[in-house]
Design brief:
Order of helices and strands: EEEHHEHEHEEEHHHHEHEHHH
Number of helices: 12
Strand content: 15-25%
Structural class: alpha/beta
Oligomer: single chain
Largest sheet: 5 strands, mixed
Bound molecules: 5'-O-[(R)-(carboxyoxy)(hydroxy)phosphoryl]adenosine, zinc ion
């Protein structure tokens, strides 16, 4: 049984595998926690014409790509199978069929190679990405996870355990970007397209509601923003919509990123913790990164945002979260299955400060 392998902190390279949505990814972390290979096969071209991820097509593409992507990671790292000391795989949350491909591939590989295996939460993996190139970033810290499915604010304590402070009541920030982009007639994935268009617009000329809910609340709501965009578009004729598209994108984006930054800094203020990590696909957003830099500089808060390649889904972050989980003594049972809710792994994730700060 894989789960009966004796417990020991990982002393060698870890292979990370990610297949929770529409990226097939494999990465290898060296024994010191540095990224020695990071390979991502994006399925955007497959889903583009449907305007969103088609789960069945995603699963099939993962099956086709997984072996090639893992072999490419080994080649990039100039390693062979027997160099590996452990395997970490995204166990959830995500698309059930997509997760099954990665989890079963990882289980098979671990069994054949006789390696320990650990399942990690996709959220924990995004959180771990903040330390990939910034291993000395301090704990405790506030973490904002902003992706296609999540807008979650956490307090991460000295032990590396995440405590939820607030999350979205409706759409995730990434969904707000994707749906806004769709309304503006932009391609898939919408977030990066809206980001690009907004750079050519004026964010000050068309204003959008910035929902902060109750005073002092750390929860988010983006559904009203979407409706506001719809009404603005309906009130314009075709030529005006064309002319003002970039300004609409810039104003809409500004409303999302302002709320994200306001709430993240509110969490800093409320907790007195003066370190902030911002992770997940939306943290690749140009304007969000700029605004965060400006605001943390003004309020003397330490900030960690991963480089772009570690913001959107990748397996380096999975290997990093796996490294912490191995050190905490966790292993995946051979009969474990993917999960689709957030809680199971986050609730049990615990690791030492030392491990976190050197991951
Ligand atoms: O973390 P991620 O790659 O996958 C999930 O876990 O969901 O995040 C994907 C989300 C999508 O909604 C995508 O549109 C958004 O991140 N995104 C962006 C940017 N790059 C990706 N949103 C705004 N600006 C970007 N540059
Ligand atoms: Zn993600």
């Amino acid at each position: 049984m894989i789960s009966n392998i004796p417990l020991f902190p990982m002393s060698g390279p870890i292979l990370g595998i990610e297949t929770s949505c529409d990226e097939t990814a494999a990465a290898i972390l060296g024994a010191d926690g540095s990224v020695v290979a990071n390979v991502v096969a994006s399925q955007h071209a497959i889903h583009e014409r449907f305007g969103g991820v088609v789960p069945e097509l995603a699963s099939r593409a993962h099956i086709e790509m997984i072996e090639r992507v893992v072999l490419a990671a080994l080649e990039e790292a100039k390693m062979s199978w027997d160099s590996l000391a452990g395997i970490a795989v995204t166990q959830g949350p995500g698309l059930a069929g997509a997760l099954i491909v990665g989890v079963h591939y990882a289980k098979t590989l671990a069994y054949i190679l006789g390696l320990p295996l650990v399942g990690v939460s996709h959220l924990d993996a995004h959180i771990a990405s903040a330390w990939l190139e910034n291993p000395e970033f301090p704990l405790p810290c506030i973490v904002l996870v902003v992706s296609g499915g999540h807008t979650h604010l956490y307090r991460r304590d000295l032990q590396g355990t995440s405590h939820l402070l607030g999350c979205t009541r409706d759409d995730a920030a990434g969904e707000a970007f994707d749906k806004g982009a769709q309304m503006l007639g932009l391609g898939f994935p919408g977030g990066p397209a809206l980001d690009r268009l907004a750079r050519t617009g004026n964010r000050a000329v068309i204003s959008f509601p910035k929902s902060s809910l109750k005073k002092g609340s750390l929860e988010f709501s983006f559904s009203g923003l979407k409706t506001a965009l719809l009404y603005k578009l309906q009130a314009m004729d075709d030529s005006e919509r064309g002319e003002r598209r970039a300004d609409l994108a810039a104003g809409y984006q500004e409303a999302i990123v302002t709320v994200l930054v306001d709430k993240a800094l509110l969490a800093v203020e409320q907790t007195g913790i003066r370190s902030l990590a911002v992770v997940g696909g939306v943290s690749a957003n140009t304007r969000l990164r700029m605004l965060l830099q400006e605001r943390v500089r003004a309020s003397h808060v330490r900030l960690s945002i991963p480089p772009l390649r570690f913001c959107t889904d990748n397996a380096a972050m999975v290997a990093a979260a796996g490294r912490q989980a191995f050190a905490a003594g966790r292993r995946m049972a051979i009969d474990a299955e993917p999960f689709t809710t957030v809680e199971p792994i986050l609730a049990t994730a615990s690791m030492t400060t030392k491990e976190v700060s050197h991951s």
